[in-house]
């Protein structure tokens, strides 16, 4: 953690050159105050690390340095305009910046491009020399292009420079913001490289300027690339080109294991590696292979990586000749995998050679198959899950309206009852026009709307589509009882004990519910004003309205 904090400090000092700047130079630090700064590194929030780094930086700069602080994302969540010049650039501003950073909230989005542009404008970059130092732990989230902004500021500015400190970014993320610095002649520094940044601080700020040394003798020209790996699926196979593969490059530990990951590159990668020991990992799809590499100065390397893998193409279909289902889940349990991988719809993936267990699900249907895949082989499979398609609805009565309400509850059960008289539930949904893919067989639809319920048996055949509609035999009762505190609905007929069956209630002056056709008693409780009853009749497929004064 201390090394990481020192890395941030060194980054800001080295990038801005504030400790050795002329008094006429003016700069603004742009601080990422987005909600992602609550993320932790080694158990400590990044915002706290940033605050500590700023306190350290501001105690080392000369008092006459004109420095300001701008922040974004510190006042509003979800806003792309939450940008504020918290401390205007001025000499002796260190204490004001420290207080502002320590009291700042970290809430919102990451409009880093707009913030850098506003900082440049506040520094009058088209008239005077200006420097902006951006410290960010995330990428642009407000539909702006940092690379294009860098070019625009460089072309319009008198002497404008933007430096970027990548605060906990991955190498790939860093490349997406590094262009902002590079396009203005600035530098991009990964804050995690604490030692390199600390050395730069000692050499450029803390230590007195060393006496000039004689220019070193020119080194022999180095080759443009000394590492150009190739990848094949099988021994003797043609090298893959632009296949979407990745190259992960790690430092090797003393015991030969993988150490720090240096970078991840893609496709037909060529690069230059410093002398040393490495572990190179090649991945494509779900297959991977790695091997050690010892790089010596002046040597070039073109290692071949053999994945020992093949290509599987799966086309999930509900029935023979039916279209491929994009929402079908394709689960692959392949050799060497820590856990099965899930894809959707038509799937084309590279897998390690050997036995792969395949499971495809469409709705409630499932198909399983075991596939043998040889290195370099392509296997294409149409997987027939064997389901039919039904659209489920309910109507109030024969010839009446469809129940078009989100409160409609539909459940599908197996038709066969168990020994205890219950059925196994297969699936469920809410509202009208529920669509289900079901294996062939007999089922029962149970539809419920408020207090009314109906069952409808149906059959599913593979490859067929059907409509299933349950008839509730119900109507709607709408009750208006001004001043009511509670409304209760009961069956009109009492049981042998003199009790009425309850059909729902509401703590309101109005109540609307769907009820089976029949006669009812509505009880209204107005508190101190007492209770009052009224009768109502509900007819199937009709709406009844009752007002109780």
TrEMBL record:
VWFA domain ranges (all copies): 26-205
Keyword set, alphabetical order: Signal
Matches recorded under SMART domains: VWA (SM00327)
Region forming the signal peptide: 1-23
The protein's name: Ca-activated chloride channel family protein
Source organism of the structure: Aminobacter aminovorans
């Amino acid at each position: 953690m201390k090394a990481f904090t020192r890395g941030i400090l060194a980054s800001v000092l080295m990038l801005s050159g504030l400790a050795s700047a002329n008094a006429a130079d003016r700069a603004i630090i742009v601080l990422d105050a987005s909600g992602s700064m609550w993320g932790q590194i080694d158990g400590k929030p990044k915002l706290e690390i940033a605050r500590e780094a700023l306190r350290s930086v501001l105690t080392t700069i000369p008092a006459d340095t004109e420095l300001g602080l701008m922040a974004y994302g510190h006042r509003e969540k979800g806003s792309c305009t939450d940008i504020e010049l918290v401390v205007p650039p001025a000499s002796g501003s260190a204490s004001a910046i420290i207080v502002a950073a320590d009291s700042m909230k970290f809430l919102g989005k990451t409009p880093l491009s707009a913030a850098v542009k506003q900082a440049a404008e506040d520094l009058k970059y088209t008239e005077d020399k200006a420097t902006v130092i951006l410290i960010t732990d995330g990428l642009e989230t407000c539909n702006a292009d940092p690379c294009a902004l860098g070019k625009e500021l460089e072309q319009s500015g008198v002497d404008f420079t933007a430096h970027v400190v990548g605060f906990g970014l991955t190498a790939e993320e860093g490349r997406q913001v590094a262009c902002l610095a590079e396009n203005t002649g600035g530098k991009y520094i990964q804050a995690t490289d604490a030692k390199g940044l600390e050395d730069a601080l000692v050499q450029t700020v803390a230590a007195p300027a060393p006496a000039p040394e004689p220019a070193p003798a020119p080194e022999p020209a180095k080759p443009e690339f000394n590492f150009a790996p190739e990848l094949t699926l099988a021994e003797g196979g043609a090298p893959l080109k632009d296949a979407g593969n990745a190259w992960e490059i790690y430092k090797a530990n003393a015991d030969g294991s993988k150490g720090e990951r240096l970078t991840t590159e893609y496709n037909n990668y060529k690069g230059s590696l410093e002398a040393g020991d490495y572990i190179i990992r090649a991945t494509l799809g779900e297959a991977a292979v790695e091997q050690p590499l010892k790089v010596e100065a002046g040597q070039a390397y073109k290692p071949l990586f053999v994945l020992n893998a093949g290509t599987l193409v799966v086309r999930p279909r509900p029935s023979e000749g039916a279209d491929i289902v994009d929402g079908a889940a394709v689960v692959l349990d392949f050799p060497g995998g820590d856990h099965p991988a899930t894809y959707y719809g038509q799937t084309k993936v590279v897998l390690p050679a050997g036995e792969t267990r395949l499971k495809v699900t469409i709705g409630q249907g499932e198909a399983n198959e075991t596939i043998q895949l040889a290195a370099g082989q392509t296997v294409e499979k149409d997987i027939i899950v064997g389901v039919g398609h039904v659209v489920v609805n309910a109507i109030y009565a024969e010839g009446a309206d469809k129940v078009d309400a989100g409160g409609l509850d539909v459940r599908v059960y197996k038709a066969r009852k168990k020994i205890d008289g219950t059925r196994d539930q297969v699936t469920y949904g809410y509202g009208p026009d529920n669509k289900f893919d079901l294996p062939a067989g007999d089922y029962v639809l149970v539809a419920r709307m408020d207090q009314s319920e109906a069952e409808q048996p149906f059959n599913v055949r593979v490859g067929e589509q059907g409509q299933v509609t349950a008839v509730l035999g119900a109507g709607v009762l709408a009750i208006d009882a001004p001043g009511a505190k509670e409304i209760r609905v009961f069956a009109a007929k009492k049981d042998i004990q003199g009790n009425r069956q309850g059909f729902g209630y509401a703590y309101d002056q109005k109540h609307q519910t769907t009820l089976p056709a029949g006669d009812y008693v509505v009880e209204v409780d107005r508190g101190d004003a007492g209770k009052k009853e009224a009768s109502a009749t509900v007819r199937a497929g009709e709406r009844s309205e009752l007002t109780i004064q």
